[in-house]
Amino acid sequence: MLTVGVDLAADAARTALARVRWTPGGARVEGVVVGVDDAAILDAVPEAAKTGIDCPFGWPDLFADFIAAHRTGHVPPQQDDPQWRRPLVNRVTDLVVREQTKLVPLSVAADRIAHPALRCAPLLAELSRRGTDVRRDGTGAVVEVYPAASLRRWNLTHRGYKRAANAARLADLVDALQAAAPWLDLAAAEPLCRTSDDAFDAVIAALTARAATLNQTTTPTSAQHPAALTEGWIALPTGPLAALTQ
Questions:
Q1: Which domain holds residue 34?
Q2: Which residues contact 139 (CB under 8 A, 6 or more apart)?
Q3: By three-state DSSP, how is residue 244 classified?
């Protein structure tokens, strides 16, 4: 089995893609590339059993409704209390992640993560046009992932390893991942994972995609499912790293 992980940025320069090949009892990283354009992503997704993409798949439904109402001049009066804005800027899945992990996903409606999401939306649309199942609830060929939350679920360092200033912590995190998952062979990708947090996150995205294929990630309840189909759903691992080798 092959899983792919994509750490999607607003531009190709900071976008990374990892391929992980799974065999009985283990896995090997077949390659990680940083500087990935849309064409490479569109080619990689159909090759994999599942692709984990670190990017919101949609916007909050209430936010979309608000923007539509604003365009036509039909926004109802609101109270001075700013709390009314909170449901507009958080997706259902964002609230679930916050509740279950104590992490706060960036708001696709009110933060810079919107820029990668604007790139992701036409990618998902093009994959769909090519016949790939891209249901945003993660049941198709792609699944939304959040590497920091996956790392936390797997009892690994989940913050403080980003950017060049934290290179030493990133290298320590690679060591910790190898100790926790001795069955994972980073192969030729190891040096890049030690120096690029984008490359490392792409590998974590591919591991989370594997968890999703094994039904070892959170899924929406029946009440949450309609929102998951439009807003997206972050798959959180529900089992240990070792369970990925089954």
A1: 2-245
A2: 133
A3: helix
